[in-house]
Design a protein that fits this description.
Shape: elongated
Helix content: 10-25%
Number of strands: 2
Oligomer: single chain
Order of helices and strands: HEEHH
Structural class: mainly alpha
Low-confidence stretches: 132-137
Distance between the termini: 102 Å
Mean pLDDT: 71
Length: 155
């Protein structure tokens, strides 16, 4: 083992004297490379040290409440309660959008509610043809024109 150590570390580099003892070379002093501006948006914030606080706020003082059992201290993902409270907190959700069945269409002073999509299309096309409009038709109307004919009136 001692022989292996001598073989490994026998040919090491010996230390040299300081910079003032180095030989002078007749070459110009080297300059630092030119600054190249990087592509893209630059980083706004500096790199924080490991002991500095982060940019995110802590959730201290906020009590977690489970939506399944209505108890504090955990959320629904970590709920270990076997019995779930039916009167627990329910998340409020937006009402879903309704289709064209609830659109109010007014043509010639008559308002119709709860009409079908084909009736609305027919009334829109009738209004367009009655005014002889020769202007740009929106893409929805072009789609409707390709699906429905003016001659057939829906029931």
């Amino acid at each position: 083992m001692r022989e292996d150590y001598k073989i490994c570390y026998d040919n090491n580099v010996s230390p040299i004297n300081g910079m003032d003892m180095w030989p002078n070379v007749g070459v110009e002093e080297m300059l630092s490379p030119q600054y190249k501006k990087g592509l893209g948006r630059t980083k706004k914030l500096r790199f924080r040290e490991h002991d500095e606080s982060g940019s995110r706020m802590k959730r201290s003082g906020v009590a977690y409440r489970c939506t399944l059992c209505d108890k504090f201290g955990h959320n629904s993902r970590k709920c270990q309660s076997k019995v779930h409270d039916p009167n627990a907190l329910k998340r409020k959700r937006k009402t879903p959008r309704t289709k064209a069945s609830s659109i109010v269409v007014e043509t010639a002073g008559v308002s119709k509610t709860n009409t079908s999509e084909s009736t609305i299309t027919y009334l829109m096309l009738q209004k367009l043809s009655s005014h002889n409009l020769k202007c740009a038709i929106p893409s929805l109307m072009l789609y409707k024109l390709s699906r429905h004919k003016l001659k057939k009136k829906p029931k």
